[in-house]
Write a structure and sequence with these properties.
There is one protein chain. The chain has 3 domains: 83 residues, Orthogonal Bundle (Arc Repressor Mutant, subunit A), CATH 1.10.10.10; 100 residues, 3-Layer(aba) Sandwich (D-Maltodextrin-Binding Protein, domain 2), CATH 3.40.190.10; 103 residues, D-Maltodextrin-Binding Protein, domain 2. It has 11 helices and 12 strands. The chain is rod-shaped. The longest helix is centred in the first third of the chain and has 27 residues. By secondary structure, the protein is an alpha/beta fold.
């Protein structure tokens, strides 16, 4: 027996079963009642099963028709749900960005609204963890922002785009810089607690090499494995941190932190953008990459 059936016939049966009327089904489907009756009759003849009892102007499902209607209605509901979901997802692209926590917290999050305003058709999914770096191939990440040694762990076919050079300087709360032991020269740091950011590519030991005549006790002071925690500690007046100007733009703009010894310091190339070459020309990836580097260049210290 040939069981391949017309979707039009199934649609007519489902509407008639749901509305208990050929006339109402015809009105919903924009056909005549006789067309609905004809389609239902085709199903009944094809399978040799009576689907409706015809009672005057009404139709009542048979037991076989009721079982079939339940299955057909469930299938049409799934199609309708899938269609609604397609309508929602087709209006936007989801861009998955993975970033180190400190860059995500200190720099990227405060600016995401700007990107969304420029590209309302792109929804950003931001994930932040460290370590390990994201797997561009297995985790569905479009853009991975990495730092330090994690930059070397890329799969084949990865594009690696370096950030502009960062500047690392001592930073502290205004109350520390202008307190009982003012900070006006590198030597003044001897009177203050040094905050250590253990993942930063530049530490107090490197700073001491630049200022050889300034003996600091770098064996003491609180230590953090995230730059955003070291920055937060400095804002709270715990001591002086040695961090990137890239990560403290908000704190400098609001006056919660100052650079008591100026904005000139050690240079480092720490962050990179990593993406698969096969996805580089996707509009959502290209738009975010262009926006990111424009933002980075716009706020670089002169």
């Amino acid at each position: 027996m040939q069981h391949r059936i017309s979707l039009k016939a199934v649609q007519a049966f489902e509407a008639a079963a749901r509305l208990s009327s050929f006339a109402l089904a015809a009105e919903e489907l924009f056909v005549t009642p006789s067309a609905v009756s004809h389609q239902v009759k085709l199903l009944e003849e094809q399978f040799g099963v009576k689907l409706f009892h015809r009672v005057h102007r009404a139709v009542v499902l048979t037991d076989a028709g009721r079982v079939y209607a339940e299955e057909v209605s469930s299938a049409f509901s799934k199609i309708e749900m899938a269609t609604r979901e397609l309508g929602r997802t087709a209006k936007s692209d989801i861009l998955t960005v993975h970033s180190t926590p400190s860059f995500a917290t200190q720099w990227l999050m405060p600016r995401l609204a700007r990107f969304s305003a420029m590209h309302p058709d792109i929804d950003v999914r931001l994930n932040a963890s460290y370590p390990p770096p994201a797997d561009l191939l297995l985790q569905g990440v479009d853009i991975d922002i990495r730092y330090g040694s994690a930059r070397r762990l890329q799969p084949a076919g990865t594009m690696v785009l370096p950030f502009p050079t960062e500047t690392i300087v001592p930073l502290c709360a205004p109350a520390i810089a202008n307190g009982p032991h003012p900070i006006r020269s590198p030597e003044d740091l001897r009177h203050h607690t040094l905050i250590h950011s253990e993942v930063c590519l530049v530490g107090w030991r490197d700073w001491m090499r630049l200022h050889r005549k300034v003996p600091l006790d770098i064996s003491r002071g609180p230590r953090f494995d995230r730059s955003f925690m070291a920055i937060s500690a400095a804002v709270d007046g715990l001591g002086v941190c040695l961090e990137s100007l890239l990560l403290v733009e908000r704190e400098l703009d609001t006056g919660r932190l100052i650079a008591p010894l100026g904005l000139d310091g050690l240079k480092v190339q720490g962050y990179t953008v990593n993406l698969l070459k096969s996805r580089a020309d996707l509009p959502k990836v290209r738009n975010f990459q262009d926006w990111l580097f424009n933002q980075l260049e716009a706020r670089r210290p002169s």
